[in-house]
Amino acid sequence: MKDVLQIWQFLPDTFAAAKPDINYLSSLLNGVSFDNISVFPGFCDVHVHFREPGFSYKETIRSGSEAAAAGGYTAVCAMPNLSPVPDSEINLKAETDIIKRDAVIKVYPYAAITVGQKGERLSDMEALSKNCIAFSDDGKGVQSAEMMEQAMINAKKLGRIIAAHCEVNDLLNGGYIHKGIYAEKHGHKGICSESEWKQIERDIALSKKTGCAYHVCHISCKESVELIRQAKRDGVDITCETAPHYLLLDENDIIEDGRFKMNPPLRSKEDKAALIEGVSDGTVDMIATDHAPHSAEEKSKGLKDSAFGIVGIETAFQLLYTGLVKTNIITIQRLIEMLSVNPRKRFGIPINNDYTVWDMTEKSTVNPENFLSMGKSTPFEGREIYGKCLLTVEGGKTVYKAKEI
Fold first, then answer.
1. 357 - beta bridge partners?
2. Calpha distance 172→93 (Å, rounded)
3. If you compute the radius of gyration of the chain from its CA atoms, what whole number of angstroms results?
4. Strand pairing partners for 275?
5. pLDDT for 64-122, tens place per residue?
6. Contact 338, 261 (CB under 8 A)
7. Given 137, 290, 354, 359, which residue is catalytic?
8. Is the pTM value of this prediction over 0.70?
9. Closest CA to 246 of 290, 183, 192
10. Is 317:387 a contact under the CB 8 Å cutoff?
11. CB contact at 8 A, 177 and 250
12. Which end of the chain is more exposed for a tag (fewer CB within 10 A), N or C?
């Protein structure tokens, strides 16, 4: 049997606190051959939607956190588009009370930048900062430059990150997929790339001016990559994320199905290539899933009328390993940096006896019927993937184990 230390797949000095207890792991895997097994630090997703409170018919804290554990995640950051919106202490407590009761892994809530995420006035950021991981109005861009600047000034003072969904409303024009070849060919209204990168450009200038730690959510286009690359060269305190679907799919993969509708949308081949280059050269710091479950009915209305958003937390690692590592685009070490190390470093999320155990030779196809998430809508349905999560341990406690363990 291979020694557990030999299958620990990362920099042990960097993430020593994540390293498994050998005796505990050996007892859990008793009878399982270690020949094809790898052990990784618990993954960390800084962008998920667990829908509770307010929309528990889509997902709950329990179902979302169980799905995350099944995907190898031991920590996630939950976005604030909830009801009530966590824009006050009492509204944030409504969410944290459920997290304390039901979460099977660490769930860190975002607080809203603006009251009700309406972009009209700032939330009580000082009061909220004690119990939130960062501030975001995800799902909506903050349209007022003056309001975003003041939010950044406040966040800087409080030692918190502003994580921005960047979208200029005046440039959307009713679009719902990328303004490109597929939209033009099939008569759909398109969302231009400028609606994303133009607000990133504005916010970079504001971050430079205020000194605020700034994080860009789910970048999807080549202009965004280049703006962030240059901002890093200029010394701006900026990080960014992209999502698996922007690295593995583009507009040429779209079919007339709500499974292919998300915001931002799948963009061009050139955009995908630029994102992959950004992942390879370090411009893109982390990969987050933007796990966004909806009911089957909400996703059954085609590209035009379905809700924006797909699920992905249970398949992210396998998809990325299959599509980027096995194809020699990046190394497994680089993937783990983006899934575990960099998100934790940027957002100050600790790791202690958090790890996940995988059989990397197991081959399967993505089948939403097997998801623990209440959401089943994924554009990767039927795709062949490698890797099976056998075990996830958070804080020394087993939070997921496969049936054969």
1. 39, 391
2. 34
3. 20
4. none
5. 999 999 999 999 999 999 999 999 999 999 999 999 999 999 999 999 999 999 999 99
6. no
7. 290
8. yes
9. 290
10. yes
11. no
12. N
